[in-house]
Recover the amino acids of this structure.
């Protein structure tokens, strides 16, 4: 299967700890997106990359969040000093092309629980 | 500003009857519109997309949607529901002015009664 993969699938951490998630997009896709989904809500945009450049960040992405995509391949999302409000499903998606018609392919997500 | 309103948080239909999931959007430019489905413990899967070509869009698994600019709507339909259609459905709008990021609705949970 050559779809979008995310690791880990589940993460339980204590408040104040740092966590890092990884996303491997579909190999030829130049765009990579991160979203956050809380229970009963649709996914909300966090940030996206075109190749290795991070082009936009949502105001939801506080100073404690940082994302990278070295060499335009996989991406990592790090959350420092986690808070209970960070508990959510973190979704990664990738797409090919620049147009609005480019559909995004989503990974299975990483479910974060902060205790 | 871009936004999506899914008019029903929950829809329940009997197996074999038609499905209608309603979506209204707000967009400053010519948007692209999508429907995604999310089955429990599975990733989001694209059902169909509208990209300013034909206003009636056919997708996978017998679903289709009609883009109506005058009504700013993009409702999802299926003639006959299957048990396997039970899932969460998201309407999504995308604009080039917004970096092609997706704006999701809050979702409609579809229950199919045998």
């Amino acid at each position: 299967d050559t779809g979008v993969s995310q690791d880990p699938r589940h993460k339980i951490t204590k408040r104040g700890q740092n966590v890092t998630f990884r996303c491997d997009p579909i190999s030829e896709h130049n765009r990579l997106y991160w979203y956050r989904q809380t229970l009963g809500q649709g996914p909300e945009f966090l940030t996206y990359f075109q190749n290795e450049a991070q082009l936009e960040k949502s105001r939801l992405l506080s100073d404690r969040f940082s994302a990278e995509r070295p060499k335009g391949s996989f991406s990592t999302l790090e959350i420092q000093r986690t808070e209970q409000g960070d508990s959510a499903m973190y979704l990664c998606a990738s797409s090919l092309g620049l147009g609005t018609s480019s559909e995004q392919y989503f990974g299975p997500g990483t479910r974060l629980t902060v205790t | 500003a871009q936004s999506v309103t899914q008019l029903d948080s929950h829809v329940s239909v009997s197996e074999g009857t038609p499905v209608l999931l309603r979506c209204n959007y707000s967009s400053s430019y010519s948007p692209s519109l999508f429907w995604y489905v999310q089955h429990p413990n599975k990733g989001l899967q694209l059902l169909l997309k509208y990209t300013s070509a034909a206003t009636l869009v056919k997708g996978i698994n017998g679903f289709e949607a009609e883009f109506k600019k005058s009504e700013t709507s993009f409702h999802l339909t299926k003639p006959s529901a299957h048990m396997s259609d039970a899932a969460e459905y998201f309407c999504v709008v995308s604009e080039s002015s917004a970096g092609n990021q997706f704006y999701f609705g809050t979702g409609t949970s579809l229950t199919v009664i045998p």
Notes: Residues 35 and 108 of chain B are 11 Å apart (CA to CA).
